[in-house]
Design goal:
Layout (H helix, E strand, L loop, with lengths): L2 H16 L6 E5 L11 E7 L17 E7 L2 E7 L10 H13 L4 E10 L9 E8 L28 H14 L3 E8 L8 H10 L3 E3 L3 H9 L3 E11 L10 H25 L2
Parallel strand pairs: 1-4, 1-5, 5-9, 6-7, 7-8
Antiparallel strand pairs: 2-3, 3-4, 5-8, 6-9
Helix pairs in contact: 1-2, 2-5, 3-6
The structure holds hypoxanthine.
């Protein structure tokens, strides 16, 4: 079976559960934001396990299901639990859900994540709009055969992060009285956090944040012409900035503290990103 045939089967299965009504946008809920899916109205839940050809998440704290429903009057599809390269999935597998969403007809993608703060002028707990990204490792979610139905083999990434969506996010933050930084997210494969030298390198290259997700998804979305928006919760200062070691607990703790304003911002964006 070819990739496009699999995607069509996955898409048809999901649509058979959610119904054919247009979905305004898909949101990938990063660590800490998973609860947002529980506040959808008229929600329909589809477990990844049940979707033909879908990968299944293994990270503790990451649920593995789609939740489709209404938030702020918009019909959205949430991914509660994403697929990371460090779990053992290939890059291609990590973006399979995003490609499925496009085959379902979804045109907008909102990516959220937790990331380390590389910019020394900012603080743990800050929220950052992803203005652009850097990914230096050679692997790509689009390596290998390229089904024409998904998009061109070679494609432009100038507006991988949609300019209008950025404006919407900035306006939403301003209205909500939430400080939103704007910066460059640098992708690292993980699962180990970066070394202090890697963090210095990232800063020298122009990065403001470091993280282990999101970029493969944005690349796949860009190929398919989706409008993509990304917001990072900077849960910790990246390695070597402070005189303390990093821990996953710190990431979860800060995520929990910031959750309220992050959810407020996400809701406002969902409401106004037309
Ligand atoms: N580095 C990479 N990924 C992360 C970090 C970090 O410091 N914090 C949360 N996710």
């Amino acid at each position: 079976m070819t990739l496009i045939e699999k995607l069509r089967e996955s898409a048809a299965f999901i649509t058979s559960k959610t119904g054919p009504e247009k979905i305004d946008l898909a949101i990938v809920l990063g660590s800490g934001l998973g609860d947002l899916a529980d506040s959808l109205e008229k929600s329909v839940i589809v477990d990844y396990h049940d979707i033909p050809h879908f990968p299944v998440s293994t990270v503790p704290g990451h649920k593995g299901r789609l939740v489709c429903g209404y938030l702020e009057g918009r019909r959205i599809l949430c991914m509660q639990g994403r697929f990371h390269f460090y779990e053992g999935w290939s890059m291609q597998e990590c973006v399979y859900p995003i490609q499925t969403f496009r085959v379902m007809g979804i045109e907008k993608l909102f990516l959220t994540n937790a990331a380390g703060c590389v910019n020394k002028d900012w603080n743990a707990g800050d929220l950052m709009l992803i203005d652009d990204h850097i990914k230096l490792d050679a692997d790509s979610p689009l390596r290998g055969q390229n089904p024409d139905e998904l998009g061109p083999r070679f494609f432009d990434m100038t507006e991988a992060w949609n300019p209008e969506a950025k404006d919407v996010a900035i306006a939403a933050a301003r209205e909500a009285g939430i400080t939103l930084r704007k910066g460059v997210y640098m992708y690292f494969g993980g699962p180990q956090f970066e070394t202090p030298a890697e963090v210095r390198m990232a800063r020298t290259l122009g990065a403001d944040a470091a993280g282990m997700s999101t970029v493969p998804e944005a690349i796949a979305a860009s190929q398919m012409g989706m409008k993509t928006l990304g917001i990072s919760c900077l849960t910790n200062m990246a390695a070597g900035i402070l005189a303390q070691k990093l821990s996953h607990e710190e990431v979860l703790e800060t995520g929990e503290k910031v959750k309220g304003s992050f959810i407020t911002l996400v809701r406002k964006i969902v409401k106004t990103w037309k």
